[in-house]
Amino acid sequence: MLKLPIYLDHNATTPMDPRVLEAMIPYFVENFGNAASRNHSFGWQAEEAVDYAREQVAQLIGADPKEIIFTSGATEGDNLGIKGVYEMYASKGNHIITCTTEHKAVLDTCKHLEKLGAEVTYLEVQPDGLIDLKQLEAAMKPTTILVAIMYANNEIGVIQPVKEIGAIAKKHGALFFTDAVQAVGKIPVDVIADGIDIMAFTAHKMYGPKGVGALYVRRKNPRVKVTAQVDGGGHERGMRSGTLNVPGIVGFGKACELARLEMAADTERISKLRDKLENALKVIDESYVNGNPAHRLPHVSNISFKYVEGEGLMMGFNKDIALSSGSACTSASLEPSYVLKALGLGDDLAHSSLRFGLGRYTTEEQIDFTIKAVTDTVLKLREMSPLWEMFKEGIDIDAIQWAHH
Amino acid sequence: MAYSDKVIDHYSNPKNVGTLDKGSKSVGTGLVGAPECGDVMRLQIQVDEATGVITDAKFKTFGCGSAIASSSLATEWLKGKTIDEAVKIDNMDLVEELNLPPVKIHCSVLAEDAIKAAINDFRVKNGLAELVFEQSHV
Fold first, then answer.
1. CB A128 within 8 A of CB A343
2. pTM of this prediction exceeds 0.80
3. Chain A interface residues facing chain B, Cβ-Cβ under 8 Å?
4. Number of domains into which chain B is organized
5. What is the dihedral of CA A330, A326, A123, A94, to 10 degrees?
6. Assigned fold of A18-259
7. Which of A136, A356, A400, B121 is the most exposed place for a label (fewest CB within 10 A)?
8. ipTM, interface predicted TM-score of the complex
Protein backbone atom coordinates (compact mmCIF):
# COMPACT_ATOMS: atom_id res chain seq x y z
CA MET A 1 0.00 0.00 0.00
CA LEU A 2 1.25 3.40 -0.96
CA LYS A 3 1.49 5.62 2.09
CA LEU A 4 0.69 9.29 1.56
CA PRO A 5 1.97 11.97 1.60
CA ILE A 6 5.10 11.28 -0.42
CA TYR A 7 8.19 13.28 0.50
CA LEU A 8 10.11 14.56 -2.53
CA ASP A 9 11.82 17.57 -0.98
CA HIS A 10 15.10 16.01 0.09
CA ASN A 11 17.07 19.12 -0.87
CA ALA A 12 15.26 20.97 1.91
CA THR A 13 15.91 18.33 4.52
CA THR A 14 16.02 14.57 4.86
CA PRO A 15 14.34 12.31 7.37
CA MET A 16 16.74 10.95 9.95
CA ASP A 17 17.93 7.41 9.35
CA PRO A 18 16.73 5.26 12.28
CA ARG A 19 20.28 3.96 12.66
CA VAL A 20 21.41 7.53 13.28
CA LEU A 21 18.80 8.02 15.96
CA GLU A 22 19.86 4.79 17.60
CA ALA A 23 23.46 5.98 17.77
CA MET A 24 22.40 9.28 19.32
CA ILE A 25 20.08 8.04 22.04
CA PRO A 26 22.69 7.11 24.67
CA TYR A 27 24.08 10.65 24.54
CA PHE A 28 21.04 12.44 25.86
CA VAL A 29 20.27 10.95 29.28
CA GLU A 30 22.91 8.37 30.04
CA ASN A 31 26.12 9.80 28.60
CA PHE A 32 25.28 13.44 28.93
CA GLY A 33 28.75 14.74 29.72
CA ASN A 34 30.31 17.91 28.39
CA ALA A 35 33.08 17.02 25.95
CA ALA A 36 35.14 19.84 27.42
CA SER A 37 35.05 18.40 30.95
CA ARG A 38 38.59 17.10 31.16
CA ASN A 39 38.63 15.69 34.66
CA HIS A 40 35.89 13.09 34.96
CA SER A 41 34.51 10.11 33.16
CA PHE A 42 31.35 11.87 31.95
CA GLY A 43 33.49 14.33 30.04
CA TRP A 44 35.88 11.66 28.77
CA GLN A 45 33.00 9.59 27.46
CA ALA A 46 31.56 12.57 25.60
CA GLU A 47 34.96 13.56 24.25
CA GLU A 48 35.56 10.04 23.03
CA ALA A 49 32.22 10.01 21.24
CA VAL A 50 32.98 13.35 19.58
CA ASP A 51 36.44 12.18 18.53
CA TYR A 52 34.97 9.09 16.97
CA ALA A 53 32.35 11.14 15.10
CA ARG A 54 35.06 13.54 13.96
CA GLU A 55 36.84 10.60 12.36
CA GLN A 56 33.65 9.40 10.69
CA VAL A 57 32.99 12.86 9.27
CA ALA A 58 36.58 13.36 8.15
CA GLN A 59 36.70 9.98 6.46
CA LEU A 60 33.69 10.75 4.28
CA ILE A 61 35.44 13.76 2.72
CA GLY A 62 39.04 12.54 2.77
CA ALA A 63 40.11 14.95 5.49
CA ASP A 64 42.11 14.65 8.69
CA PRO A 65 39.90 14.66 11.82
CA LYS A 66 41.80 17.72 13.07
CA GLU A 67 40.48 19.62 10.08
CA ILE A 68 36.84 19.25 11.14
CA ILE A 69 35.25 22.12 13.09
CA PHE A 70 31.78 21.28 14.34
CA THR A 71 29.16 23.99 13.86
CA SER A 72 25.41 24.37 14.24
CA GLY A 73 24.88 23.84 10.51
CA ALA A 74 25.90 25.08 7.10
CA THR A 75 24.63 28.63 7.52
CA GLU A 76 27.02 29.03 10.41
CA GLY A 77 29.71 27.25 8.40
CA ASP A 78 29.22 29.63 5.47
CA ASN A 79 29.43 32.62 7.79
CA LEU A 80 32.48 31.33 9.64
CA GLY A 81 34.27 30.24 6.49
CA ILE A 82 33.79 33.47 4.57
CA LYS A 83 33.85 36.07 7.34
CA GLY A 84 36.62 34.16 9.09
CA VAL A 85 38.84 34.28 6.00
CA TYR A 86 38.00 37.92 5.33
CA GLU A 87 39.15 38.88 8.82
CA MET A 88 42.13 36.54 9.02
CA TYR A 89 43.55 37.49 5.62
CA ALA A 90 42.71 41.20 5.68
CA SER A 91 46.36 42.15 5.26
CA LYS A 92 46.51 40.13 2.01
CA GLY A 93 43.52 41.66 0.30
CA ASN A 94 39.80 42.29 0.39
CA HIS A 95 38.49 40.74 -2.83
CA ILE A 96 36.09 37.79 -2.80
CA ILE A 97 34.70 36.01 -5.86
CA THR A 98 31.40 34.17 -5.64
CA CYS A 99 28.49 33.52 -8.01
CA THR A 100 24.88 34.59 -8.37
CA THR A 101 23.34 31.16 -7.72
CA GLU A 102 24.87 30.65 -4.29
CA HIS A 103 22.70 30.00 -1.28
CA LYS A 104 21.57 33.11 0.61
CA ALA A 105 23.85 32.13 3.48
CA VAL A 106 26.78 32.84 1.15
CA LEU A 107 25.30 35.78 -0.77
CA ASP A 108 24.11 37.63 2.30
CA THR A 109 27.40 37.00 4.07
CA CYS A 110 29.21 38.53 1.09
CA LYS A 111 26.82 41.48 1.09
CA HIS A 112 27.52 41.98 4.78
CA LEU A 113 31.26 42.02 4.10
CA GLU A 114 30.80 44.52 1.28
CA LYS A 115 29.47 46.95 3.86
CA LEU A 116 32.64 46.39 5.88
CA GLY A 117 34.89 47.17 2.93
CA ALA A 118 35.12 43.94 0.96
CA GLU A 119 35.07 43.98 -2.81
CA VAL A 120 32.91 41.13 -4.09
CA THR A 121 32.62 39.86 -7.64
CA TYR A 122 29.42 37.93 -8.37
CA LEU A 123 30.05 35.69 -11.36
CA GLU A 124 27.08 35.04 -13.61
CA VAL A 125 26.33 31.45 -14.45
CA GLN A 126 25.85 30.01 -17.92
CA PRO A 127 22.38 28.87 -19.05
CA ASP A 128 23.17 25.36 -17.77
CA GLY A 129 23.90 26.71 -14.28
CA LEU A 130 27.68 26.22 -14.34
CA ILE A 131 30.13 29.06 -13.92
CA ASP A 132 32.46 29.93 -16.78
CA LEU A 133 36.02 29.12 -15.70
CA LYS A 134 37.43 31.73 -18.06
CA GLN A 135 35.35 34.36 -16.31
CA LEU A 136 36.64 33.14 -12.97
CA GLU A 137 40.20 33.32 -14.19
CA ALA A 138 39.61 36.82 -15.54
CA ALA A 139 38.09 37.98 -12.25
CA MET A 140 41.14 36.97 -10.18
CA LYS A 141 43.19 39.89 -8.87
CA PRO A 142 46.24 40.28 -6.65
CA THR A 143 43.86 41.27 -3.86
CA THR A 144 41.65 38.17 -4.25
CA ILE A 145 41.74 36.24 -0.99
CA LEU A 146 38.81 33.90 -1.46
CA VAL A 147 36.83 32.12 -4.15
CA ALA A 148 33.47 30.98 -2.74
CA ILE A 149 31.63 28.74 -5.16
CA MET A 150 29.15 26.07 -4.11
CA TYR A 151 29.78 22.41 -4.84
CA ALA A 152 26.25 21.63 -6.03
CA ASN A 153 23.23 23.85 -6.34
CA ASN A 154 20.24 23.34 -4.06
CA GLU A 155 17.57 24.22 -6.62
CA ILE A 156 18.76 22.62 -9.82
CA GLY A 157 21.40 20.22 -8.54
CA VAL A 158 24.15 21.20 -10.97
CA ILE A 159 27.67 20.33 -9.84
CA GLN A 160 30.24 23.05 -10.38
CA PRO A 161 33.69 22.18 -11.80
CA VAL A 162 35.15 22.17 -8.32
CA LYS A 163 38.60 20.76 -9.15
CA GLU A 164 39.17 23.39 -11.83
CA ILE A 165 37.94 26.15 -9.53
CA GLY A 166 40.27 24.97 -6.77
CA ALA A 167 43.19 24.92 -9.19
CA ILE A 168 42.50 28.45 -10.43
CA ALA A 169 42.23 29.77 -6.87
CA LYS A 170 45.48 28.07 -5.90
CA LYS A 171 47.32 29.38 -8.95
CA HIS A 172 46.44 32.92 -7.92
CA GLY A 173 47.21 32.43 -4.24
CA ALA A 174 43.58 32.63 -3.12
CA LEU A 175 41.72 30.19 -0.89
CA PHE A 176 38.83 28.11 -2.18
CA PHE A 177 35.72 27.89 -0.01
CA THR A 178 32.78 25.73 -1.04
CA ASP A 179 29.31 25.30 0.37
CA ALA A 180 28.92 21.56 -0.13
CA VAL A 181 25.65 21.07 1.70
CA GLN A 182 23.92 19.37 -1.21
CA ALA A 183 26.91 17.32 -2.32
CA VAL A 184 28.45 15.73 0.77
CA GLY A 185 26.88 12.36 1.44
CA LYS A 186 25.28 12.26 -2.02
CA ILE A 187 28.28 12.17 -4.32
CA PRO A 188 31.96 11.48 -3.63
CA VAL A 189 33.61 14.62 -2.23
CA ASP A 190 37.34 14.54 -1.55
CA VAL A 191 38.88 17.72 -0.22
CA ILE A 192 42.39 16.75 -1.38
CA ALA A 193 41.46 15.68 -4.91
CA ASP A 194 39.06 18.61 -5.26
CA GLY A 195 41.55 21.17 -3.98
CA ILE A 196 39.16 22.56 -1.38
CA ASP A 197 40.55 24.73 1.41
CA ILE A 198 37.39 25.35 3.42
CA MET A 199 34.06 23.56 3.12
CA ALA A 200 30.73 23.89 4.90
CA PHE A 201 28.27 21.01 5.14
CA THR A 202 25.49 19.83 7.40
CA ALA A 203 24.00 16.68 8.88
CA HIS A 204 20.31 17.15 8.16
CA LYS A 205 20.71 16.95 4.38
CA MET A 206 22.23 13.48 4.71
CA TYR A 207 19.83 11.66 7.04
CA GLY A 208 21.41 13.12 10.18
CA PRO A 209 19.93 15.42 12.80
CA LYS A 210 19.22 19.13 12.38
CA GLY A 211 21.31 21.68 14.22
CA VAL A 212 24.73 20.22 13.56
CA GLY A 213 27.18 20.71 10.73
CA ALA A 214 30.88 21.00 10.09
CA LEU A 215 33.41 23.31 8.55
CA TYR A 216 36.41 21.66 6.99
CA VAL A 217 39.47 23.87 7.42
CA ARG A 218 42.63 22.67 5.67
CA ARG A 219 45.73 22.27 7.85
CA LYS A 220 48.38 21.53 5.23
CA ASN A 221 49.29 23.04 1.84
CA PRO A 222 48.30 25.62 2.83
CA ARG A 223 47.53 25.79 6.54
CA VAL A 224 44.31 27.78 6.63
CA LYS A 225 43.01 29.77 9.56
CA VAL A 226 39.70 31.48 10.05
CA THR A 227 38.95 34.12 12.66
CA ALA A 228 36.35 32.89 15.12
CA GLN A 229 32.93 34.48 14.80
CA VAL A 230 31.72 33.17 18.14
CA ASP A 231 34.00 33.90 21.06
CA GLY A 232 34.10 32.00 24.30
CA GLY A 233 35.75 28.90 25.71
CA GLY A 234 38.01 28.30 22.73
CA HIS A 235 36.44 25.05 21.60
CA GLU A 236 37.21 23.56 18.19
CA ARG A 237 40.80 24.80 18.11
CA GLY A 238 39.65 28.29 18.95
CA MET A 239 37.65 28.64 15.76
CA ARG A 240 34.20 27.98 17.18
CA SER A 241 33.46 28.35 20.86
CA GLY A 242 30.43 26.79 22.46
CA THR A 243 29.69 23.51 24.22
CA LEU A 244 29.64 20.75 21.66
CA ASN A 245 26.29 19.26 20.68
CA VAL A 246 27.41 15.75 21.58
CA PRO A 247 24.32 13.75 20.54
CA GLY A 248 24.03 15.77 17.34
CA ILE A 249 27.69 15.24 16.53
CA VAL A 250 27.40 11.51 17.23
CA GLY A 251 24.43 11.37 14.86
CA PHE A 252 26.29 13.38 12.23
CA GLY A 253 29.20 10.97 12.46
CA LYS A 254 26.91 7.99 12.04
CA ALA A 255 25.16 9.63 9.09
CA CYS A 256 28.55 10.22 7.44
CA GLU A 257 29.57 6.63 7.98
CA LEU A 258 26.32 5.34 6.46
CA ALA A 259 26.68 7.72 3.52
CA ARG A 260 30.22 6.53 2.89
CA LEU A 261 29.22 2.86 2.96
CA GLU A 262 25.91 3.13 1.11
CA MET A 263 26.40 6.03 -1.28
CA ALA A 264 27.16 3.95 -4.34
CA ALA A 265 24.13 1.69 -3.91
CA ASP A 266 21.84 4.59 -2.97
CA THR A 267 22.97 6.62 -5.96
CA GLU A 268 22.43 3.81 -8.38
CA ARG A 269 18.90 3.18 -7.16
CA ILE A 270 17.87 6.82 -6.71
CA SER A 271 19.27 8.04 -10.02
CA LYS A 272 17.29 5.36 -11.84
CA LEU A 273 14.10 6.57 -10.17
CA ARG A 274 15.01 10.20 -10.89
CA ASP A 275 15.58 9.37 -14.56
CA LYS A 276 12.30 7.50 -14.74
CA LEU A 277 10.46 10.47 -13.28
CA GLU A 278 12.23 12.96 -15.49
CA ASN A 279 11.80 10.99 -18.68
CA ALA A 280 8.09 10.55 -18.03
CA LEU A 281 7.55 14.24 -17.29
CA LYS A 282 9.64 15.38 -20.26
CA VAL A 283 7.03 13.73 -22.47
CA ILE A 284 4.62 16.51 -21.52
CA ASP A 285 4.58 19.22 -24.20
CA GLU A 286 6.58 22.35 -23.41
CA SER A 287 8.31 20.97 -20.35
CA TYR A 288 11.96 21.81 -19.81
CA VAL A 289 14.57 20.33 -17.49
CA ASN A 290 16.61 23.08 -15.82
CA GLY A 291 20.36 22.79 -15.32
CA ASN A 292 23.15 20.84 -16.94
CA PRO A 293 21.94 17.23 -17.12
CA ALA A 294 25.42 15.72 -17.26
CA HIS A 295 26.86 17.58 -14.27
CA ARG A 296 24.09 17.10 -11.80
CA LEU A 297 23.31 15.47 -8.47
CA PRO A 298 21.75 12.03 -8.91
CA HIS A 299 18.64 12.73 -6.87
CA VAL A 300 17.41 16.09 -8.16
CA SER A 301 15.31 17.13 -11.10
CA ASN A 302 14.06 20.66 -11.71
CA ILE A 303 11.47 20.94 -14.44
CA SER A 304 9.52 23.90 -15.82
CA PHE A 305 6.05 23.22 -17.20
CA LYS A 306 5.45 26.20 -19.40
CA TYR A 307 2.09 28.00 -19.22
CA VAL A 308 1.18 26.68 -15.78
CA GLU A 309 2.15 28.40 -12.56
CA GLY A 310 4.19 26.40 -10.05
CA GLU A 311 2.20 27.11 -6.93
CA GLY A 312 -1.09 26.46 -8.65
CA LEU A 313 0.44 23.27 -9.98
CA MET A 314 1.54 22.11 -6.55
CA MET A 315 -1.91 22.74 -5.16
CA GLY A 316 -3.16 19.98 -7.41
CA PHE A 317 -1.28 17.36 -5.44
CA ASN A 318 0.30 18.89 -2.37
CA LYS A 319 -1.87 16.97 0.01
CA ASP A 320 -0.24 13.84 -1.41
CA ILE A 321 3.20 14.96 -2.59
CA ALA A 322 5.61 17.32 -0.83
CA LEU A 323 7.96 19.20 -3.12
CA SER A 324 9.15 22.72 -3.93
CA SER A 325 8.42 25.24 -6.64
CA GLY A 326 10.59 28.00 -8.08
CA SER A 327 7.53 30.19 -8.00
CA ALA A 328 7.40 32.51 -5.04
CA CYS A 329 3.77 33.46 -5.25
CA THR A 330 3.41 33.46 -1.48
CA SER A 331 6.32 35.78 -0.83
CA ALA A 332 5.62 39.47 -0.62
CA SER A 333 7.95 40.22 -3.51
CA LEU A 334 6.27 37.84 -5.99
CA GLU A 335 9.76 37.32 -7.36
CA PRO A 336 10.42 33.83 -8.67
CA SER A 337 13.57 31.87 -7.90
CA TYR A 338 16.73 33.96 -8.36
CA VAL A 339 18.61 30.80 -9.23
CA LEU A 340 16.36 29.99 -12.19
CA LYS A 341 16.44 33.61 -13.29
CA ALA A 342 20.23 33.53 -13.16
CA LEU A 343 20.12 30.74 -15.76
CA GLY A 344 18.46 33.23 -18.05
CA LEU A 345 15.04 31.63 -17.74
CA GLY A 346 12.20 34.05 -18.32
CA ASP A 347 10.11 34.77 -15.26
CA ASP A 348 7.33 32.71 -16.78
CA LEU A 349 9.47 29.57 -16.86
CA ALA A 350 10.85 30.29 -13.41
CA HIS A 351 7.29 30.60 -12.09
CA SER A 352 6.41 27.29 -13.74
CA SER A 353 9.07 25.13 -12.16
CA LEU A 354 8.98 22.24 -9.74
CA ARG A 355 11.93 20.76 -7.90
CA PHE A 356 11.84 17.03 -7.28
CA GLY A 357 14.29 15.87 -4.62
CA LEU A 358 14.43 12.10 -4.19
CA GLY A 359 15.98 10.28 -1.26
CA ARG A 360 17.03 7.10 0.45
CA TYR A 361 13.47 6.00 1.12
CA THR A 362 11.89 6.99 -2.19
CA THR A 363 10.19 4.01 -3.87
CA GLU A 364 9.25 3.26 -7.45
CA GLU A 365 5.60 3.19 -6.40
CA GLN A 366 5.93 6.75 -5.13
CA ILE A 367 7.51 7.84 -8.39
CA ASP A 368 4.76 6.22 -10.46
CA PHE A 369 2.15 8.01 -8.36
CA THR A 370 4.00 11.30 -8.76
CA ILE A 371 4.30 10.97 -12.53
CA LYS A 372 0.57 10.50 -12.83
CA ALA A 373 -0.42 13.24 -10.37
CA VAL A 374 1.89 15.84 -11.92
CA THR A 375 0.95 14.96 -15.49
CA ASP A 376 -2.77 15.07 -14.75
CA THR A 377 -2.49 18.41 -12.97
CA VAL A 378 -0.37 20.02 -15.68
CA LEU A 379 -2.87 18.98 -18.34
CA LYS A 380 -5.82 20.12 -16.25
CA LEU A 381 -4.30 23.52 -15.51
CA ARG A 382 -3.31 24.05 -19.12
CA GLU A 383 -6.96 23.70 -20.06
CA MET A 384 -7.50 26.55 -17.63
CA SER A 385 -4.51 28.64 -18.75
CA PRO A 386 -5.04 31.60 -21.07
CA LEU A 387 -1.34 31.46 -21.95
CA TRP A 388 -1.62 27.86 -23.11
CA GLU A 389 -4.58 28.80 -25.29
CA MET A 390 -2.62 31.68 -26.83
CA PHE A 391 0.37 29.43 -27.37
CA LYS A 392 -1.85 26.91 -29.13
CA GLU A 393 -3.26 29.67 -31.32
CA GLY A 394 0.26 30.68 -32.25
CA ILE A 395 0.19 34.04 -30.45
CA ASP A 396 3.62 35.28 -29.39
CA ILE A 397 3.14 35.77 -25.67
CA ASP A 398 6.46 37.56 -25.25
CA ALA A 399 5.34 40.21 -27.74
CA ILE A 400 2.29 41.18 -25.67
CA GLN A 401 2.52 44.37 -23.65
CA TRP A 402 1.45 43.11 -20.24
CA ALA A 403 0.14 45.53 -17.69
CA HIS A 404 2.31 45.01 -14.62
CA HIS A 405 0.90 44.85 -11.17
CA MET B 1 0.25 27.94 3.94
CA ALA B 2 -3.10 26.22 4.10
CA TYR B 3 -5.81 27.18 1.65
CA SER B 4 -9.40 27.73 2.74
CA ASP B 5 -11.95 25.07 1.82
CA LYS B 6 -13.61 27.48 -0.58
CA VAL B 7 -10.36 28.10 -2.46
CA ILE B 8 -9.73 24.37 -2.66
CA ASP B 9 -13.26 23.80 -3.92
CA HIS B 10 -12.97 26.40 -6.69
CA TYR B 11 -9.52 25.10 -7.60
CA SER B 12 -10.68 21.48 -7.76
CA ASN B 13 -14.00 22.22 -9.46
CA PRO B 14 -13.58 25.54 -11.19
CA LYS B 15 -16.77 27.12 -12.47
CA ASN B 16 -17.04 28.53 -15.96
CA VAL B 17 -13.66 27.68 -17.40
CA GLY B 18 -13.70 28.46 -21.08
CA THR B 19 -13.63 30.88 -23.93
CA LEU B 20 -16.25 33.15 -25.49
CA ASP B 21 -15.93 34.61 -28.96
CA LYS B 22 -13.83 37.68 -28.34
CA GLY B 23 -14.74 39.02 -31.78
CA SER B 24 -18.43 39.20 -30.89
CA LYS B 25 -19.87 42.62 -30.14
CA SER B 26 -21.79 41.25 -27.19
CA VAL B 27 -18.67 39.82 -25.53
CA GLY B 28 -16.33 41.81 -23.33
CA THR B 29 -12.82 40.44 -22.68
CA GLY B 30 -10.47 41.45 -19.89
CA LEU B 31 -6.91 40.14 -19.92
CA VAL B 32 -4.88 41.29 -16.92
CA GLY B 33 -1.69 40.39 -15.09
CA ALA B 34 1.61 39.36 -16.60
CA PRO B 35 3.40 36.04 -16.97
CA GLU B 36 6.46 37.38 -15.16
CA CYS B 37 4.34 38.21 -12.13
CA GLY B 38 3.05 34.66 -12.08
CA ASP B 39 -0.58 35.61 -12.71
CA VAL B 40 -2.53 36.11 -15.92
CA MET B 41 -6.31 36.23 -15.84
CA ARG B 42 -8.66 36.34 -18.77
CA LEU B 43 -12.27 37.01 -17.93
CA GLN B 44 -15.05 37.26 -20.49
CA ILE B 45 -18.66 38.34 -20.24
CA GLN B 46 -21.52 37.77 -22.63
CA VAL B 47 -23.95 40.66 -22.38
CA ASP B 48 -27.57 40.83 -23.49
CA GLU B 49 -27.44 44.07 -25.42
CA ALA B 50 -31.09 44.87 -24.81
CA THR B 51 -31.12 44.48 -21.04
CA GLY B 52 -27.46 44.95 -20.13
CA VAL B 53 -27.60 41.69 -18.19
CA ILE B 54 -24.55 39.42 -18.15
CA THR B 55 -25.88 36.10 -19.43
CA ASP B 56 -22.64 34.17 -19.36
CA ALA B 57 -19.13 34.54 -17.99
CA LYS B 58 -15.99 32.50 -18.63
CA PHE B 59 -12.41 32.59 -17.40
CA LYS B 60 -9.01 31.16 -17.93
CA THR B 61 -6.28 31.83 -15.39
CA PHE B 62 -2.57 31.16 -15.17
CA GLY B 63 -1.70 31.48 -11.51
CA CYS B 64 -1.85 30.05 -8.04
CA GLY B 65 -4.88 28.42 -6.45
CA SER B 66 -6.10 31.71 -5.04
CA ALA B 67 -5.97 33.37 -8.45
CA ILE B 68 -7.91 30.51 -9.99
CA ALA B 69 -10.47 30.58 -7.18
CA SER B 70 -10.84 34.38 -7.39
CA SER B 71 -11.58 34.27 -11.09
CA SER B 72 -13.88 31.26 -10.78
CA LEU B 73 -15.90 32.99 -8.06
CA ALA B 74 -15.95 36.24 -10.04
CA THR B 75 -17.58 34.49 -13.03
CA GLU B 76 -20.19 33.01 -10.70
CA TRP B 77 -21.03 36.41 -9.31
CA LEU B 78 -21.12 38.06 -12.74
CA LYS B 79 -23.77 35.83 -14.21
CA GLY B 80 -27.20 37.39 -13.94
CA LYS B 81 -25.90 40.79 -12.90
CA THR B 82 -26.32 43.89 -15.04
CA ILE B 83 -23.19 45.69 -16.17
CA ASP B 84 -23.93 48.45 -13.68
CA GLU B 85 -24.12 45.95 -10.83
CA ALA B 86 -21.01 44.12 -11.99
CA VAL B 87 -18.93 47.28 -11.86
CA LYS B 88 -19.57 47.42 -8.13
CA ILE B 89 -17.95 44.05 -7.36
CA ASP B 90 -15.16 44.85 -4.94
CA ASN B 91 -12.02 42.79 -4.53
CA MET B 92 -12.50 42.75 -0.75
CA ASP B 93 -15.78 40.88 -1.24
CA LEU B 94 -13.80 38.15 -2.99
CA VAL B 95 -11.22 38.19 -0.20
CA GLU B 96 -13.93 37.76 2.39
CA GLU B 97 -15.83 35.05 0.57
CA LEU B 98 -12.68 33.02 -0.16
CA ASN B 99 -10.96 33.78 3.11
CA LEU B 100 -7.79 34.85 1.31
CA PRO B 101 -4.74 35.57 3.46
CA PRO B 102 -3.01 38.98 3.10
CA VAL B 103 -0.33 37.66 0.70
CA LYS B 104 -3.10 36.59 -1.68
CA ILE B 105 -5.08 39.81 -1.78
CA HIS B 106 -3.40 40.70 -5.08
CA CYS B 107 -5.24 37.72 -6.63
CA SER B 108 -8.58 39.34 -5.80
CA VAL B 109 -7.34 42.69 -7.10
CA LEU B 110 -6.50 41.02 -10.35
CA ALA B 111 -10.00 39.53 -10.57
CA GLU B 112 -11.59 42.91 -9.95
CA ASP B 113 -9.36 44.45 -12.59
CA ALA B 114 -10.32 41.68 -15.01
CA ILE B 115 -14.03 42.37 -14.48
CA LYS B 116 -13.51 46.07 -15.13
CA ALA B 117 -11.34 45.43 -18.15
CA ALA B 118 -14.02 43.11 -19.60
CA ILE B 119 -16.73 45.70 -19.01
CA ASN B 120 -14.68 48.42 -20.66
CA ASP B 121 -13.92 46.18 -23.61
CA PHE B 122 -17.66 45.61 -24.03
CA ARG B 123 -18.36 49.34 -23.71
CA VAL B 124 -15.76 50.36 -26.26
CA LYS B 125 -17.03 47.76 -28.71
CA ASN B 126 -20.49 49.23 -28.33
CA GLY B 127 -19.44 52.83 -28.78
CA LEU B 128 -19.52 53.79 -25.11
CA ALA B 129 -16.77 55.65 -23.28
CA GLU B 130 -14.39 53.66 -21.08
CA LEU B 131 -15.08 53.93 -17.38
CA VAL B 132 -12.27 55.28 -15.23
CA PHE B 133 -11.80 53.37 -12.02
CA GLU B 134 -10.10 54.16 -8.78
CA GLN B 135 -7.26 51.99 -7.58
CA SER B 136 -8.61 48.93 -5.79
CA HIS B 137 -7.57 47.91 -2.29
CA VAL B 138 -4.14 46.33 -2.33
1. yes
2. yes
3. 307-312, 315-316, 327-332, 334, 336, 346-348, 351, 383-389, 397, 402-405
4. 1
5. 40
6. Aspartate Aminotransferase; domain 2 (3.40.640)
7. A400
8. 0.92
